[in-house]
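pasting for the record
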Amino acid sequence: MTSILFYLFSAVLLFAAFKVITAKSAVHAAIFLILAFFTTSALWLLLEAEFLAITLVLVYVGAVMVLFLFVVMMLDANMEPLREGFTRYFPAGALVAATIVVEMSVVLGGRYFSAENFPSPVPHGPDYSNTKELGEQLYTVHVFSFEVAAAILLIAIVAAIGLTFRRRPESRKQNIADQHRVNRSDRVRLLDIREGDET
């Protein structure tokens, strides 16, 4: 039954991933990407990686993709100009994709994708914690890689802020000290308007 579910979810995942890059509408592509995330989390559940599965659903499906759909639907961008050259560049893109698949199969096929490296998953007891096991592996065996990835992400965030931050002379800024020193007479002016006055 596990093998049947694996091949079923894998087929759905491949179909959803193909529709993400071939859908004519950006909204449809985002919906197919959500389907791909759900099927990926189902595959992780089959591998007893419950924490990663629920994190994928909560973070990417529940937050990132909802925000992406909101932005796409609010902007209502015209995707037709972007789709005009799809058929013209499709053969080149398919050739590049096939080349990458062949290279990965040649490099990784013999050593990593063998039956000895992927034994059948052993069922764990009810007291097994996937989150605890992931934390132990992440902060002991792979702690250096984790710290390097965290530093790269921090540099990327700072670089993105630096690229988008520009000093504009026409932009207005608030002075908090001036706001605290303000009086009612500085902001409010009472006018005595008599009947018949035009000003």
